[in-house]
Specification:
- This protein has 251 residues and is an alpha/beta fold.
- It has one domain (6-250): Spore Coat Polysaccharide Biosynthesis Protein SpsA, Chain A, CATH 3.90.550.
- Helices cover 50% and strands 18% of the residues.
- The protein contains nine helices and seven strands.
- It has a seven-stranded mixed sheet with strand order 3-2-1-4-6-5-7, with helices on both faces.
- The radius of gyration is 17 Å and the shape is globular.
């Protein structure tokens, strides 16, 4: 494998100002560690586009900007970013949400874990403060149980946290050949399908804060229906893979 060469990947939709605040906080770390950031403009309106252009112009020594002409959703934006990371020769990508809810200071710890186990997904699970909405915690419990069921794995601590490191080459190749939900079901579906593929995984905690003035891109009706369809597809996929999953368990 090539020398460890990580980057940070941030899909951005409607979080221009929050993203700028986060890049300001990441500046010293990125320059000290020589870590590049790939921002993906997911078909934003003019206001957010202007923030992203300003970020690119201010921090052009460590920020790469990928622009999508139309909104493709979190999964679509991630795919565009991971393909760009592959083109640029990065070995690992740390996915961060643009709204700044994750404790980015855990980046170095996660990169160290990825360096020690370069073929694995290094996945975050949330340590919430009092700002977390109750429905978020309850929804995660259901998703985690379902993911454990369809993968036959007990170690899935969290399937929805957007703070995670992917090995770039394996993930990029997978996304060019296989369908994964392009919107809010992406984080769930990609982790299940990469586990099916045989990628190892490790979980570590990351603090998560929900800003009181934060903008949510989650549509309660549409996205819950979409995630339900993701669960249905994964359940069907599990039945097809039972012989393989059983053999893996026996081994």
């Amino acid at each position: 494998m090539a020398d460890f060469n990580p980057c940070i990947l941030i899909p951005v939709y409607r979080h221009g100002k929050a993203c700028m605040n986060m890049i300001e906080k990441l500046e010293s770390y990125c320059r000290e560690k020589n870590v590049k950031i790939i921002l993906v403009d997911d078909g934003n309106a003019e206001e957010t586009k202007n923030f992203l252009i300003q970020i690119k112009n201010t921090y052009q020594d460590f920020v790469e900007l990928v622009v999508l002409s139309k909104n493709q959703g979190k999964g679509g934006a991630f795919k565009a970013g991971i393909l760009r990371a592959s083109q640029l020769g990065f070995t690992h990508a740390l996915q961060l949400d643009a709204d700044g809810q994750h404790d980015w200071t855990r980046s170095d710890f996660f990169f160290e874990k990825a360096k020690k186990n370069p073929s694995a997904m290094i996945l975050g699970y949330p340590e919430y403060d009092e700002s977390v909405p109750g429905h978020r915690k309850n929804g995660r419990k259901f998703a985690n149980t379902w993911c454990a069921l369809v993968t036959w794995q007990r170690g899935i601590v969290d399937s929805m946290c957007g703070f995670r490191i992917y090995p770039v080459e394996e993930t990029a190749k997978f996304l060019t050949k296989h369908y994964v939900d392009s919107r809010m079901g992406f984080d769930i579906e990609i982790i299940v399908k990469l586990i099916w593929k045989g990628l190892p995984f490790e979980f570590y905690p990351v603090k998560v804060t929900y800003p009181s003035d934060g903008i949510s891109n989650f549509n309660v009706l549409k996205d819950n229906v979409r995630i339900s369809w993701v669960f249905t597809r994964l359940c069907c996929g599990m039945f097809i893979r039972i012989p393989k999953l059983l053999w893996r368990k026996i081994k």
